[in-house]
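Researcher: Quick test of sequence recovery. Tokens follow.
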């Protein structure tokens, strides 16, 4: 037992013993009833045969003359535990033991007619009697009466046999339950050992898939969990490595230029340029750290949203003004597509701008000079607005659009093939949009690259 709970093997043994005990008791009760009725039937048939033999020796006129002979016969059968009760004309029932007389009377001996036979079981003072009566003349006849005592003896033997069978059945059930419990518990215990090892950091273990279907399913689930944890931890390590690289690059620039300024190596106009680089890289660091903190907090209840009515046209226009300048520096054409009517959404304007800026930064990073970056707002439904950021870059592989928002996946795949960010921007955008009650999807863009679409509840005016 562990933690005060019975083990599986113990429970199986108890269940098997309980089932075996109930089965033996039910079978014993059924057998006792059948044996009682069967034994009583045999005794009744034997008593009937003896009554028929006695009746064949008597005739309607001879019962009185043969009463003495019948009395001697009564003495013979009395040795077998049978009492003969005689009914004579005008004399009535001849006296014998009271119980037998009452049994014969209750069975109807006093009303028997010539040639009639009575075969029944009657109870007198809580005791059962077998009665076989025969009519041999007008108001004359006899009855063989036997107490049902042999059945009770048979029942005692049967009860003793039932108790023996019950003990044997319980013993066999306990042994079978113990064997079955060990067979079932062995793979489960092995699975528990592997799970405990996984809890302590082991990821190179697997559980043999064996045993009944349900036990095998548990083993398969643990193996799948082990694989999923291994992949998740690998992705976390890769993500941390990529973030470390992103942090190290601006830190190196800041450290180098600051050291040059401190040592007086850089002076005059070059010092001003060094200060600008330090400022830009520190802003980059601040933005990266802020994104990391937001990504860590986004699932928490205390993550703050300042909801207000926002005109998405104005938000997208303000975003375009900032990115137009940056696009011109990269010789990229910025296209702004706005609807004629305002789209009012109850949302957090700062978080929406954060999402748009992150998507635009990713898009500009991969868009070559001479291509186009598009910011678009459209009506996706009567109560839905669609914000899009589309680029003219190389796009993604078709299978990557479904996993684009998983943290660090695209960074790991496309690193070395094209400019990539830290791997947290799309994951952060997905989390922010979800907290704002919207959805974000990725797909191919008509400009040739990738299109990221943010759907938000909005009212069109």
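Model:
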């Amino acid at each position: 037992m562990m933690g005060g709970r019975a083990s599986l093997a113990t429970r199986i043994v108890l269940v098997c013993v309980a089932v075996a005990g109930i089965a033996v008791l039910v079978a014993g009760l059924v057998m006792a009833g059948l044996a009682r009725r069967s034994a009583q039937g045999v005794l009744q048939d034997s008593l009937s045969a003896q009554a028929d033999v006695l009746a064949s020796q008597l005739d309607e006129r001879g019962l009185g003359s043969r009463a003495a002979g019948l009395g001697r016969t009564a003495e013979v059968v009395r040795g077998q535990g049978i009492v003969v009760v005689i009914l004579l004309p005008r004399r009535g029932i001849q006296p014998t033991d009271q119980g037998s007389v009452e049994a014969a009377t209750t069975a109807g001996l006093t009303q028997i007619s010539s040639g009639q036979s009575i075969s029944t079981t009657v109870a007198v003072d809580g005791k059962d009697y077998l009665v076989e009566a025969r009519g041999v003349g007008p108001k004359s006849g006899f009855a063989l009466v036997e107490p049902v005592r042999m059945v009770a003896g048979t029942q005692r033997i049967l009860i003793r046999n039932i108790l023996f069978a019950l003990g044997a059945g319980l013993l066999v059930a306990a042994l079978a339950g113990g064997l079955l419990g060990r067979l079932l518990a062995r793979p489960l215990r092995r699975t528990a050992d592997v799970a405990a090892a996984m809890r302590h950091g082991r990821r190179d273990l697997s559980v043999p898939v064996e045993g009944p279907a349900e036990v095998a399913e548990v083993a398969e689930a643990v193996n799948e969990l082990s694989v999923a944890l291994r992949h998740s931890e690998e992705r976390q390590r890769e993500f941390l490595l990529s973030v470390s690289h992103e942090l190290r690059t601006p830190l190196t620039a800041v450290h180098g230029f600051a050291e040059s300024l401190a040592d007086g190596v850089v002076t005059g106009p070059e010092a001003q340029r060094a200060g600008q680089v330090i400022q830009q890289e520190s802003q980059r660091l601040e933005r990266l750290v802020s994104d990391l903190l937001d990504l860590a907090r986004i699932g928490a209840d205390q993550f703050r949203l300042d909801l207000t009515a926002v005109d998405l046209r104005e938000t997208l226009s303000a975003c375009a003004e900032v990115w137009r300048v940056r696009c011109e520096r990269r010789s990229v054409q910025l296209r702004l597509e706005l609807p004629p009517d305002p789209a009012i959404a109850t949302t957090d304007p700062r978080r929406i701008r954060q999402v748009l800026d992150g998507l635009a930064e990713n898009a500009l990073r991969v868009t070559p000079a001479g291509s186009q970056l598009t910011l678009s707002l459209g009506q996706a439904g009567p109560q839905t607005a669609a914000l899009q950021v589309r680029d003219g870059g190389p796009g993604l592989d078709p299978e990557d659009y479904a996993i684009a928002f998983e943290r660090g996946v695209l960074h790991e795949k496309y690193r070395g093939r094209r400019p990539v960010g830290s791997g947290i921007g799309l994951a952060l955008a997905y989390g922010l949009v979800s907290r704002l009650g919207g959805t974000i999807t990725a797909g191919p863009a008509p400009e040739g690259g990738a299109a990221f679409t943010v759907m938000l509840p909005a009212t069109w005016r």
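The chain has three domains: 8-153, 213-297, 308-460.
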